[in-house]
Write a structure and sequence with these properties.
The complex is a heterodimer.
Chain A lengths: L4 E5 L3 H11 L6 E5 L2 H10 L4 E4 L8 H10 L8 E5 L4 H10 L3 E4 L4 H12 L2
Parallel strand pairs in A: 1-2, 1-3, 3-4, 4-5
Helix pairs in contact in A: 1-5, 2-3
Chain B lengths: L2 H57 L5 H61 L5 H16 L1 E10 L4 E8 L9 E2 L3 H9 L3 E2 L7 H6 L3 E7 L2 E11 L8 H42 L1
Antiparallel strand pairs in B: 1-2, 1-6, 2-3, 4-5, 5-6
Helix pairs in contact in B: 2-3, 2-6, 3-6
Classes of the chains: A alpha/beta, B alpha+beta.
């Protein structure tokens, strides 16, 4: 994969910047940002996205709903989704994975762990 | 002479000739045999001579050619073994260096992560002069970078000497009690301008309001303008990492400056708006 495109869906600008920092370490990485689930779906339809990173607790549309919608769409059913969230309970993770998320990372994040997960999913 | 006599004479001649032929053959055979015997003797002598030469060579001190080859092989083998031992030693050294490099790489990666966190926190704190936005950014830093679940930002009312919660996360702001400067853990930490870390925090939230997990006075030079009190961490955040203490130090200074600047800016904007309105009124 030459230049992967990442979609970050996160309502916190601080968190978006931190994730962007980490992803920019991947050569050629392009980053698209959205501040909520609805904005995320718009950006998904207008960009060729290789991987989605999303929070759960967001205004307008939360991350789990977003995951469900993405997976229901034939066009995006194979796009890897990484959840990045403060919700650390086992049930929360199970729910997210059952909906179709590929990875579940709890905050506060370690950039190294995030990069490692992303690279594994995209086979970089 | 009769026919019979001629026949007899012829027969005798034949016999003689045959006899002579036989003798010739016999003489030739004898000569051939003698030649063979001579050749046999010559060869036998040669064999004896060669055997003696071989014996002498094998018994010689510098060995025969076979001995030389064996000793060369032994020497080469010894050289290869020495070289193998050198290579094994070098391999061990390289492996040890490798382990060292891996550890250093891990350390550098961790430093990298920490610096990224600190940079982002600092950048965000100074990215706006809007007071409400600054408070929100401080909340985000504590949630996303440190892992706080329940916490509050207090600001100091210098006239009343009271610390009043201005923003909170995890609980409604109305649940958080006001603190008198110099009283209780929070009040004393702010008065002394010293950060407080609780080694044995309670499980009960109400008790934590009085004795928090962490209390970080917000300071501009030596002037304390407020404090951050952290009551509970996220479930998955078991303990503080070294970078968390760096973030506390950063918040103590930069968050204070950001709050102060944004309050000044907001107030001056409000005053400007008031003066402008007044001037508009006068000019009518």
């Amino acid at each position: 994969m030459a230049s992967p495109t990442f979609l970050i869906i996160e309502d916190s600008p601080t968190m978006r910047q931190l994730i962007r920092f980490a992803l920019n370490r991947i050569p050629g990485a392009e980053v698209v940002e959205a501040s909520d689930g609805v904005d995320g779906l718009k950006k998904l339809s207008s960009n060729k996205v290789d991987l989605i990173l999303t929070d759960i607790n967001m205004p307008i549309m939360d991350g789990l709903k977003l995951v469900n919608l993405v997976r229901s769409n034939e066009a995006y059913k194979d796009v890897p989704i990484v959840i990045i969230t403060t919700e650390g309970a086992k049930e929360d993770k199970e729910r997210a994975m059952a909906l179709g998320a590929n990875a579940y990372i709890t905050k506060p994040i370690q950039s190294t762990a995030l990069l490692s997960t992303v690279k594994e999913l995209l086979k970089l | 002479m009769s026919i019979k006599d001629t026949g007899d004479k012829r027969s005798k001649t034949d016999h003689l000739e045959k006899g002579e032929e036989f003798l010739d053959m016999f003489r030739k055979g004898q000569e051939f045999t003698q030649d063979l015997l001579k050749e046999n003797e010559r060869l036998r002598f040669q064999v004896i001579h060669l055997e003696e030469a071989l014996k002498k060579k094998l018994q010689a001190p510098d060995g025969g050619q076979e001995n030389n080859t064996s000793q060369d092989t032994v020497q080469k083998l010894a050289q290869y073994e020495t070289r193998l031992r050198e290579l094994e030693t070098r391999l061990s050294e390289v492996e040890a260096e490798n382990v060292d490099f891996v550890q250093r790489y891990i350390d550098v990666e961790e430093q990298n992560n920490n610096l990224a966190n600190l940079y982002v926190a600092s950048y965000q704190l100074h990215s706006t002069l809007d007071y409400e936005e600054v408070l929100q950014i401080i909340l985000e830093i504590i949630i996303n970078l440190i892992g706080g679940e329940v916490f509050a930002i207090y600001l100091l009312d210098e006239k009343a000497n009271m610390l009043t919660p201005e923003a909170s996360e995890g609980v409604p702001i109305s649940d958080i009690p006001v603190v008198q400067l110099g009283e209780g853990v929070i009040g004393k930490a702010v008065q002394a301008n010293e950060s407080y870390f609780n080694d044995n925090p309670s499980e009960d939230l109400k008790e934590l309001y009085a004795d928090p997990l962490v209390c970080i006075p917000l300071t501009i030079k030596d002037d304390v303008i407020g404090t951050i009190a952290l009551f509970r961490l996220l479930q998955q955040k078991v303990t503080f990492a070294p970078v968390d203490f760096e973030l506390f130090t950063l918040l103590a200074g930069h968050a204070a400056t950001a709050i102060f600047s944004s309050r000044l800016f907001t107030e001056s904007k409000r005053k400007l708006s008031t003066y402008q309105g007044f001037l508009d009124l006068l000019s009518q």
